[in-house]
Design goal:
It contains 1 helix and 9 strands. It has 164 residues and is mainly beta. The termini are far apart.
Length: 164
């Protein structure tokens, strides 16, 4: 394909995408059918995080259903100093820091000295059943994506807020 033809096609596709009247937004895809989706910051609908997380977090599901088999994307917004005790997931966890500073440590026990703070734009992949803990500096937003069902198991069952 010539450079001119490629450039013309690229400009045409960009023009079509910019001129689209009302692009589908988060959660607007028909069930079971993948299609184009846009989630602008103002489109994100925050609500209380699941009760398995310590109080104070907010969550938003951008795509899919993390409680069911299949792909999902969620965001978690936490206040300064928010901490999640040592835990693990039965599936891989893919995490991207959107804003703030997200501290992550590996191990069976929450140890501040093992925390590495990650700035916005950082990406982490944690393996299935890999024990880890987290803490935020400043209000922090992270995005988690993967293949569900996504769950959370505390290393120390006494840390589970649903058991208190």
């Amino acid at each position: 394909m010539s450079r001119r033809l490629f450039a013309a096609l690229a400009v045409g596709f960009l023009t079509l995408s910019v001129l689209a009247d009302d692009p589908p937004r988060a959660g607007s895809s028909p069930a079971g059918k993948l299609s184009h989706m846009v989630a602008l910051p103002d489109d994100v609908k925050w609500g209380p995080a699941p009760p398995v997380l310590p109080a104070g977090a907010q969550a938003a599901v951008l795509d899919g259903d993390p409680t069911k088999p299949g792909l999902f994307t969620i965001r978690l917004k936490v206040p300064d100093g928010y901490a999640i005790p040592a835990h693990w997931h039965s599936v891989e966890e893919n995490l991207t820091v959107i804003s703030g500073s997200f501290g992550l440590g590996l191990g069976d026990k929450f140890e501040r000295g093992k925390i590495r703070y990650l700035p916005p734009g950082s990406y982490v992949r944690l393996g299935k059943e890999e024990r880890h803990f987290a803490m935020a500096k400043g209000e922090t937003v992270v995005q988690v994506h993967g293949t569900g069902p996504f769950d959370l198991h505390y290393v120390n069952p006494a840390d589970d807020p649903t058991k208190k």
